[in-house]
Design brief:
- By secondary structure, the protein is an alpha/beta fold.
- It is 31% helix and 21% strand.
- 35% of the residues are buried.
- Bound molecules: S-adenosylmethionine (SAM).
- Residues 64-66, 83-85, 99-101, 107, 201, 203-205, 227-228, 230-231, 233, 248-251, 254 line the site of S-adenosylmethionine.
């Protein structure tokens, strides 16, 4: 009986029925009454489709960011900060893929094209990336219109991996759409990274690595987008800094984790 059930499960997986189930969950999740809309004023002036009543605002949207971003109005977010898969086929300890899209580059250009479209003109995007696949990221960003204006480095107070060297740093690019005015007090391009303790997501970042960038490149009431949200760290930093957020995550359990973390967080 158990063996038969095991066989059924394999058939179930081959038919991709779990995806139908995930779709159903997405539908109910996205249409559920919003318990997280903040009372922050939204500064998206001149765009009547993104305001404090927007179905996207202060939510963790479950699904593929390319299709969800396509349903968002153009020029509707003030700042993007995101940490997409690094294209390194990252595996969990039991040998399973840690999350989707770490093993292919198909999503890169369409995802960044949508991010470029929804970002307001003369605005910033910060994107973490994997240095081993830097050329794919740079090519996609430039093809869709982003322009790299700075390179950001986080120095960790612990060694995250030993290979040919001990790995002590992480990196991101600061990209622009158009020509945002340069900040009067520009942030340094090197930041500290202290060990964040236990993590529920395999690539969860400490919130303190994100908050200085939210502070530098957005203002209170702005809309901050992270289309590869994972456990919702960008949303937590945004909420802490009194910004609105829009998070998108493709894996149901991570999107739930992000919602739970955000539900418990409060602005500073
Ligand atoms: C590097 S992790 C982000 C971790 C996050 N910074 C945190 O602190 O938890 C990348 C995330 O992007 C998600 N992802 C991959 N492809 C996606 C897609 N097309 N749409 C939405 N999310 C996607 C993965 O499931 C994964 O959780």
């Amino acid at each position: 009986m158990l063996a038969a059930r095991g066989k059924d499960n394999r058939l179930w997986q081959r038919l991709h029925l779990p995806y139908a189930w995930e779709e159903l969950k997405q539908f109910f999740h996205n249409h559920k009454g919003d318990t997280m809309n903040s009372s922050l004023p939204c500064t998206s002036k001149g765009n009547p489709t993104v305001n404090s009543q927007s179905p996207f605002l202060n939510r963790v949207l479950f699904g593929d960011c390319i299709s969800i971003l396509r349903s968002m109005p153009a020029a509707s977010v003030d700042f993007i900060l995101t940490d997409p898969p690094y294209l390194v086929n990252f595996k969990t300890r039991d040998g399973r893929a840690a999350y989707p899209n770490d093993d292919n580059t198909h999503w890169l250009k369409p995802a960044f094209a949508e991010m470029f479209r929804v970002l307001k003109p003369d605005s910033y995007c910060v994107c973490f990336y994997g240095w081993m696949k830097a050329e794919f990221f740079l090519q996609a960003w430039k093809q869709v219109g982003f322009y790299p204006v700075s390179h950001l480095v986080w120095i960790k107070n612990y060694c995250s991996r030993r290979e040919h060297t001990q790995w002590y740093h992480d990196t991101a690019y600061l990209l622009t759409k158009g020509n945002p005015p340069k900040p009067k007090q520009p942030t340094p391009d090197v930041f500290d990274w202290h060990y964040g303790g236990s993590r529920s997501h395999p690539a969860q970042r400490p919130v303190h690595t994100i908050t200085p960038l939210i502070a530098a490149f957005s203002k209170p009431g702005d809309v901050v987008l992270d289309p590869f949200a994972g456990s919702g760290t960008t949303g937590l930093a945004a909420k802490e800094m009194r910004r609105n957020y829009i998070l998108i995550e493709k894996v149901w359990r991570y999107s739930k984790l992000a919602r739970d973390r955000l539900f418990q967080a409060s602005p500073k």
